[in-house]
Amino acid sequence: MSHVGNGDKEQIFDATPYLKLFIDKDGRWFQNGKEIVHETIYRQFCAMLEKTSSGGYQVRMGRELCAVEVEDAPFVVKGVIEGPHGSISLRLNDGTTELFDPARFWIGKENVPYCTIRDGLFHARFSRAAYYQIARHIEADPDGTEFFFHFDGKQTRVKQ
Questions:
Q1: Which of 70, 77, 144, 159 is most exposed, with minimal Cβ within 10 Å?
Q2: CATH 3.10.540.10 residue ranges in the chain?
Q3: Thinking of the domain 3-70, which architecture would CATH place it in?
Q4: pLDDT in tens for each of the 160 residues of the chain?
Q5: Measured at the alpha carbon of residue 26, what is the angle toward residues 23 and 29, in degrees to the nearest 5?
Q6: Using only C-alpha atoms, what is the Rg of the chain?
């Protein structure tokens, strides 16, 4: 048994040696090499995900924790929802939605788009379909060297 903790403090059981959790670049979760397809369990793992102080990821349930290996970003933007008055929400792989903030969007390696979610705690990778949806709001400057969101009456430069 692996225990984390010291002294009289509540001991935490580290299930990492027994339970291999992995999130692939498409936001699919795997347990010991098998995809987690049960929707309730999948969403529960997404809800329990935490970022560690060392920059890694883990899930915690009660007094148990388990490290989570993440291939790219732990969440994926699956769709873009355009609301009234120009608002834009992002539909995430765990079924939740978040308001889109263009200041938290950037283009990463290999031209993959990302944003931060959950008050900046996590990164989310845009699926190809979601990127095509959000790209309708991006325009190039006259010489084509920089790109900007024209959104909610403001212009925000796309970071690269």
A1: 144
A2: 3-70
A3: Roll (3.10)
A4: 455 555 556 799 999 999 999 999 999 999 999 999 999 999 999 999 999 999 999 999 999 999 999 999 999 999 999 988 778 999 999 999 999 999 999 999 999 999 999 999 999 999 999 999 999 999 999 988 899 998 777 889 999 8
A5: 30
A6: 19
